[in-house]
């Protein structure tokens, strides 16, 4: 009887050790992300008094950057076209919400209710299948953000052009198009194939931080979570 019990106890101890190890890894990852998000880059940056107004948004999982369809010599209509949408009428909106991320994670998790451990684990390990997520939207109105998930900042034209160059470089030149309504998103959403490898290090939120950093905006050194992006900007 003892010989049968010992393997069970050994297995239980092993499972407990694995579970403890995973918890430790997650805690370390979370701590590292918060520390990385608190280290400033472009520390001398100050918001422009006038210029191009952009917005940083979050749905609690993914962050994105809301930009004007046309401003400061940048026109996105050559890249993101009305015919890419299921309903081209939404292309009449004057802004685009743009984000980057793992294709499976984006397409399979439009809301928190859709998050599955397997999808998260697969994305954390890493994937070459990244996409750009683009929403055609009206400009968010200041004061309408009841949940605190939108930040508005004003950029100098040269800062905005650097930001736009970074975003454009993330799109594949011959990008594939994935109508978003097929994956539980709306008729004003569309996905495009993108450059870059998604991982636990280079998340959708880290991409947002990278884009803002490239533009010269004050942001954390590593921003893997929504809070590490939004926390740099006042409501």
Alpha-beta content class: alpha+beta
Mean pLDDT, as a whole number? Answer: 85
H and E string: HEEEEEEHHEEHEEHEH
Give the oligomer, counting copies of the same chain as homo and different chains as hetero.
single chain
- Please give the largest β-sheet: 7 strands, antiparallel
Question: How would you describe this structure to a colleague?
Answer:
It is a single chain. The protein is of the alpha+beta class and 235 residues long. The chain is 35% helix and 22% strand. It is built from 6 helices and 11 strands. The strands form 3 sheets. Strands 8-2-3-6-7-10-9 form a 7-stranded antiparallel beta sheet. A two-stranded antiparallel sheet has the order 1-11. It has a two-stranded antiparallel ribbon with strand order 4-5. The longest helix is centred in the first third of the chain and has 37 residues, at 2-38. The radius of gyration is 20 Å and the shape is globular.
Describe the structure using short key phrases:
235 residues; alpha+beta; 7-stranded antiparallel beta sheet; 22% strand; two-stranded antiparallel ribbon
Summed up:
The protein is α+β, with helices and mostly antiparallel strands.
Topology, please?
Layout: H1 2-38, E1 40-41, E2 52-58, E3 63-68, E4 70-71, E5 74-75, E6 95-102, H2 103-108, H3 117-125, E7 130-137, E8 150-155, H4 157-170, E9 177-179, E10 189-193, H5 204-215, E11 219-220, H6 226-230
Antiparallel strand pairs: 1-11, 2-3, 2-8, 3-6, 4-5, 6-7, 7-10, 9-10
């Amino acid at each position: 009887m003892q010989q049968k019990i010992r393997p069970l106890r050994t297995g239980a101890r092993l499972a407990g050790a694995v579970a403890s190890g995973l918890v430790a890894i997650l805690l370390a990852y979370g701590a590292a992300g918060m520390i990385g998000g608190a280290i400033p880059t472009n520390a001398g940056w100050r918001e422009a008094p006038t210029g191009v107004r952009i917005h940083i948004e979050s749905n609690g999982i993914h962050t994105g950057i809301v930009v004007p369809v046309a401003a400061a010599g940048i026109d996105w209509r050559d890249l993101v076209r009305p015919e890419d949408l299921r309903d081209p009428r939404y292309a009449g909106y004057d802004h685009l919400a743009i984000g980057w991320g793992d294709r499976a994670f984006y397409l399979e998790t439009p809301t928190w209710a859709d998050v599955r451990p397997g999808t998260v684990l697969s994305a954390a390990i890493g994937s070459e299948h990244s996409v750009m997520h683009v929403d055609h939207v009206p400009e968010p109105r200041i004061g309408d953000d009841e949940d605190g998930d939108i930040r508005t900042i004003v950029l100098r034209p040269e800062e905005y052009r650097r930001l736009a160059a970074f975003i454009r470089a993330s799109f594949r030149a011959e990008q594939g198009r994935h109508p978003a309504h097929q994956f539980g998103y709306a008729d004003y959403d569309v996905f495009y194939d993108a450059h870059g490898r998604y991982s636990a290090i280079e998340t959708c939120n880290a991409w947002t931080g990278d884009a803002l950093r490239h533009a010269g905006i004050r942001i954390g050194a590593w921003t893997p979570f929504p809070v590490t992006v939004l926390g740099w900007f006042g409501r």
